[in-house]
Amino acid sequence: MSPKTLLILSILTVVFLFGGLALGSGKARRSSWAESGKPLFEGLADRLEEVDEIVSQTARDTTTLRRVSEGDDEGRWKVVERSLYPARADEVGRLLKALATARRLEPKTNRQSNYEKLGLAGFDDEASPTARLTLRAGETVLADLYIGNRRFRGSGESWYVREEGDPLTWAVDGKLRVPRSTSDWLDSELMSIGRQRIAAVHVQHSDGERIELVREEKTQNGFTIENLPEGREAKSKDSAPAMLGALDRLRIQDVARAEEATPEGDPETVTTFETDDGLQITCELWSEPGEEEGVETLRCRFTPGIDELRAPAPAPAEEKSEQTSEEEAAPA
Q: Which of 4, 159, 183, 306 is the right S-S partner for 176, CB 3.0 to 4.6 Å?
C-alpha cells in the first residue's frame, strides 16, 4: 500500500471519527425531544410546601433563603446573609411557582463550548448572567438548576437552563428571572407612616443647630417651624411636607446589624418623628461616598420609642359580674 493511500485512509478515519461524535450528539439530542412538553421537575408542584431552603447563586452574590418553622414568623422566608431579615415573599412565591410549572420546550446543545451563547457559562465572569437555584426540603434536594439567558421567541416567557449533573441544555417556559444580588431579595419596605399621622418633627444637626416642625392643628396638614433662627426662612414651602412624608412607604436598599455597620463618629443629623398616638421614630443619619463617583450613600439607624404623654391610655378592664349566667358557666 502506497504512502499516499495510507494518508487518504488516515484522513478518512479522522473524518469518520468526528462524524461519529457529531452523530452521537445529534442522536442524544433527538432522543430528548420525547421529553418536550413535560414538566421541568416532575412532582415538584406537590412538594412546594416542603421546601424550607432556597440557595441562589450568581456571579455577584450567593443568597440563602430559609423558611421559619416556628414562632411568630412561622412560614415566613428570611435571608440568612442578612441576619434573618425578612425576604420578599412575592419574589420567593413567584420563583417557586415558576419552577413548579415550568415545562420543557426543546433540547438545545450538550457541548460546554456552546454554553456561553446561552448564558450558562458559569460564574467566572462578573458579568455572567448565569444563576443557580437549589431547592431543599431538609437534606433532600428537590431541584438544582442553572438558568441562563432569556429566550426571545414566540409569545410567553422562556429561558435557557441546564440541570446540575446533566450536560444537555433546554429551552423551557416559565418566569425564571432571578435577583442578582442579596439585597434584591430583601423586603425593601421598612415602614409606612403617613404624613397625616405626624404631629411633630425634631431635627438635630451635628453642629448644634436644631429645627422643630409642629403641626398647626390636629385636623390640618400645615406645619410651622418653631425655632427658625432670626433673619432666616425656609428655602421653600414644600420642604416641610417632604420631610413629613419621609416615613411614608420608606424603602431600603440594604440592611446590616447595627453593631456591624454603624459608621464611626457622631451622626450628621438625628431626626425624631412623633405621631399623634405617641409613636416615636428616631433616625440617625450618616452619609458616605457611594460606589459611583459623586453619589453618596445614606446609612440610617432607626430606633422606635413611645411618648407616654401622647400615647392613648389603656382601656380599663371590665369588671366581671359575680353572677354568671348558665350559658357562660356551661363548658364550651
A: 159
